[in-house]
Amino acid sequence: MANLEQVAESLWIAEGEIVSFYGFAYPTRSVVVRLDSGALWVWSPVELTEKLRQDVDALGPVTHLVSPNKLHHLNLATWRTAFPAALLWGPASTIRRHPKWTFAAPLDDVAPRAWRDDIDQAWFRGSIYMDEIVFFHRASRTAIFADLIQTFTDDFLRAHWRPWQRMLASAGGIVAAKAQAPQDWRLSFWNRKPARAARDKVLGWNCERVIVAHGAWQRSDGTSFLRRSLNWLGR
To answer: Which residue pairs from 155-164 have beta carbons closer than 8 angstroms and sit at least 24 positions apart in sequence?
Structure first.
């Protein structure tokens, strides 16, 4: 658990621990990108085991620790302690959650200069509940989603969720066959115009693969997958 797996040139994933979210078991996954500068960009850090730290140290210096939304912050403190020279990044909603931490400028629709040549981003907002920054690693044509797309497999649900919880997963659209955001979050987008603009930007990326934090990730035909997963936003 939490060993690095190379997905493409300069891009790795780490499968993390299973965490409890209001009594529901969630698998976790982190992404590590080595920028052209050699610096490491770490998205949604999972539990930092000694083996994972060794693997990461072998790749280069950790320079950016990224929270894509206000829920993906659980291991930032541990990583910040382990890599004190790294900058913390997140949308304003994450930053407000941790007022005592020092973050770089809030993330929005425009990638910061620190990684814009390597990674693009889109800001899904308009919900009264939560926003999310979605990323795109240009060289590998990989989109990276946190909670906006959840793809729980039948095997995972049978192993970790009770029957009534599995029914909720299917009804809520977060099973692999549907691959959407949870229904309550979808309904909370009272203003869908900015989210549709972000969706259109994402569909223009011409993705090959889509890595998600929770569930099975899409290894090919990424744009078609994203079009289906985000069609709830409408036109």
So the answer is: 156/27, 156/215, 160/18, 160/25, 161/24, 161/25
pLDDT confidence of residue 1: 53
In the sheet with 132-137, reading across from the earlier edge strand, the strands are 119-124, 132-137, 142-145, 209-212
Containing structural domain, residue 40: 4-233
What percent of the chain lies above the pLDDT cut of 70? 99
Please give the tally of structural domains in the chain: 1
Q: Tell me if 186 sits within 8 A of 195, measured CB to CB.
A: no
- pLDDT tens across 33-53, in order? 999 999 999 999 999 999 999
- Compute the mean pLDDT over every residue in the chain, rounded to the nearest whole number: 96
- Fill in the amino acid letter for 198: A
The dihedral over CA atoms of 30, 122, 217, 4, expressed in degrees to the nearest 10, equals -20
Tell me, rounded to whole angstroms, the distance of Cα 189 from its chain centroid.
19
Q: Residue 154's domain is classified under what CATH number?
A: 3.60.15.10
Residue type, 117: D
Distances (CA, A) of 101 to 75, 76, 94, 95, 96: 13, 10, 10, 8, 10
Calculate mean pLDDT across residues 163-188.
Answer: 95
- Predicted local distance difference test score (pLDDT) of residue 235: 85
Which DSSP letter does residue 128 get?
S
pLDDT number for residue 67: 98
Q: Would you state the structure tokens that stand for residue 222, as one six-digit string?
A: 């990424």
58-77 residues labelled b (16+ CB within 10 A) or e (exposed): ebeebbbbbbbbbbbbbbbe
Rounded average pLDDT over 16-29: 93
